[in-house]
Amino acid sequence: MATKTARPARTSAPAYRCGECGWTTAKWVGRCGECQAWGTVEETGQVVARTTAAVTVATPALRISEIDASAASYQPTQIGELDRVLGGGLVPGAVILLAGEPGVGKSTLVLDVAARVARLGKDVLYITGEESSAQVKLRAERIGALADTLYLTAESDLGQALGQVERLSPSLLIVDSVQTLSSAAVDGTAGGVTQVREVAASLIAAAKTRGMTTILVGHVTKDGSIAGPRLLEHLVDVVCQFEGDRHSRLRLMRAIKNRYGPTDEVGCFDLTETGVEGLADPSGLFVSRTKDPVSGTCITVTLEGRRPLLAEVQALLAESSNSQPRRATSGLDSSRVAMLLAVLQQRASLSLHKDDSYVATVGGVKLSEPATDLAVALAIASAKTNQPLAGRLIAFGEVGLAGEVRPVPGIAQRVQEAERLGFTHAVVPASPNGPGKVPAGFKVHEVSTLTEALELLF
């Protein structure tokens, strides 16, 4: 018996869209309600609201107990650091967005992943919109990423790309990059809000229908955010940020969003001439190797996600010839270093207002965790007094404006990592429950104030 359907109702109103994030509204506003950008909302035409009637169900819903979860099991990529960030490996049908600055090594990493998966006997399709197939082949030869079942194609049209997927039915699809593809079915230039939304929606639909793992390489804007509409981040399953300093070989990958695993894991990679290699133990990159202790240096342990990393903070003070002393930092938050200088002067009676201060980290690592405050303060005090700290010593803890040293998470984990790398002493914040499990032979000194720490060490 035929079901009588309701006639669609249509209402029209002027439509306005933000050129930065794609947010739409029925009336013009000066500031976008999504990304808070000013002057980016422009009129785009008419919005038509429709009501859709119910249709016959093609695939009935199943009980959750009847669904086979083995089809979504992890498949390791044989790159341990990447598997750590993803939660175990690639999931069939998952769509992964990998974003990063130009030249950070995104294309090299995904090409290596493509070759490793292809060597397992699976078909892999690599679509490049920025380079020719010959250029990708040269990179593959340089990093040893050649495989018989790895297919390359240079396409910028979405229809042609989907045609390649239809012909090969690959297990893994890599698109480098999603901003270079465009669809003839919608208006706008490649990389625009409308085009990125259409391209992403079509690729995600193909991935879900075929159970095909898809990796989309994305660009970032000047402020470090992912280019394109924020809707792109909501549509994909995993969002990974690949970052690193141009002058350093170290690369870090963070999972900003992960529907299949944790978002507090960090993967460490080493960018070499032969490709991007995983670093299972990167702590040695951030510590200088000197025979004798030097004043103005202090070792700390920071937590990148759930991974403890040793890093060295160096400070240098010099008498200023200007009325306004210079405050220079590298790898640290300049405002936080300025706060620590004020705390040392007011709470610890160190005269620093006439000195130029230079505070930096070793190896180009960026330390943003408040737990590094104590190490920065001790390095500055050591530089001021010209007295080196004891060898094989680490320090960590958050310093407040009152000069107190506040507890930080993971004290036992940090101490164990320091002991594993040969350190024997630690200055840590006093905690009601103590420092936790301490390795045998390792001495932990708990302090409650910055003055107490300075009296202990100097």
UniProtKB/TrEMBL annotation:
<dbReference type="InterPro" id="IPR020588">
    <property type="entry name" value="RecA_ATP-bd"/>
</dbReference>
<feature type="domain" description="RecA family profile 1">
    <location>
        <begin position="71"/>
        <end position="220"/>
    </location>
</feature>
<comment type="similarity">
    <text>Belongs to the RecA family. RadA subfamily.</text>
</comment>
<dbReference type="InterPro" id="IPR004504">
    <property type="entry name" value="DNA_repair_RadA"/>
</dbReference>
<dbReference type="InterPro" id="IPR027417">
    <property type="entry name" value="P-loop_NTPase"/>
</dbReference>
<keyword id="KW-0863">Zinc-finger</keyword>
<dbReference type="Pfam" id="PF13481">
    <property type="entry name" value="AAA_25"/>
</dbReference>
<keyword id="KW-0479">Metal-binding</keyword>
<comment type="function">
    <text>Plays a role in repairing double-strand DNA breaks, probably involving stabilizing or processing branched DNA or blocked replication forks.</text>
</comment>
<keyword id="KW-0378">Hydrolase</keyword>
<dbReference type="InterPro" id="IPR003593">
    <property type="entry name" value="AAA+_ATPase"/>
</dbReference>
<keyword id="KW-0346">Stress response</keyword>
<keyword id="KW-0234">DNA repair</keyword>
<keyword id="KW-0862">Zinc</keyword>
<keyword id="KW-0227">DNA damage</keyword>
<keyword id="KW-0547">Nucleotide-binding</keyword>
<feature type="region of interest" description="Lon-protease-like">
    <location>
        <begin position="356"/>
        <end position="458"/>
    </location>
</feature>
<keyword id="KW-0067">ATP-binding</keyword>
<comment type="function">
    <text>DNA-dependent ATPase involved in processing of recombination intermediates, plays a role in repairing DNA breaks. Stimulates the branch migration of RecA-mediated strand transfer reactions, allowing the 3' invading strand to extend heteroduplex DNA faster. Binds ssDNA in the presence of ADP but not other nucleotides, has ATPase activity that is stimulated by ssDNA and various branched DNA structures, but inhibited by SSB. Does not have RecA's homology-searching function.</text>
</comment>
<feature type="short sequence motif" description="RadA KNRFG motif">
    <location>
        <begin position="257"/>
        <end position="261"/>
    </location>
</feature>
<dbReference type="InterPro" id="IPR020568">
    <property type="entry name" value="Ribosomal_Su5_D2-typ_SF"/>
</dbReference>
<dbReference type="InterPro" id="IPR014721">
    <property type="entry name" value="Ribsml_uS5_D2-typ_fold_subgr"/>
</dbReference>
<dbReference type="InterPro" id="IPR041166">
    <property type="entry name" value="Rubredoxin_2"/>
</dbReference>
<feature type="binding site">
    <location>
        <begin position="100"/>
        <end position="107"/>
    </location>
    <ligand>
        <name>ATP</name>
    </ligand>
</feature>
<protein>
    <recommendedName>
        <fullName>DNA repair protein RadA</fullName>
    </recommendedName>
</protein>
<dbReference type="Pfam" id="PF18073">
    <property type="entry name" value="Zn_ribbon_LapB"/>
</dbReference>
<dbReference type="Pfam" id="PF13541">
    <property type="entry name" value="ChlI"/>
</dbReference>
<keyword id="KW-0238">DNA-binding</keyword>
